[in-house]
Amino acid sequence: MTAIKLPADCETKDDVRVEIDRIDNALIELFAERHGYVTRMAEIKTDPHEANDPARIEAIVAKRRAQALDLDLDEDQAELLWRTLIDWNINYEKGIIIARTRKK
Known about the structure:
This protein is an all-alpha fold. Helix content is about 75%, strand content about 0%. Pfam families: CM_2.
């Protein structure tokens, strides 16, 4: 993803908004792609308890915190975003697994 204008090159609020909108569109596309993998994981798992893996969650959060720090992004905010995303995914996976196992 290449910026049309770097932040320092934005001279107006509209310039900044165009870049934020471009990034937001890319983020939604990435979240949709990620969601496909989360859905597939839910199809592979056989027990709703598998959706919550505390050791894996902590490893993921640690990686994202380190990455945020390397990118000069507030690591606490990055952690909050990822924990929220993970919590949502856990609930989503559990729902799929439970619905599938009830049909049997």
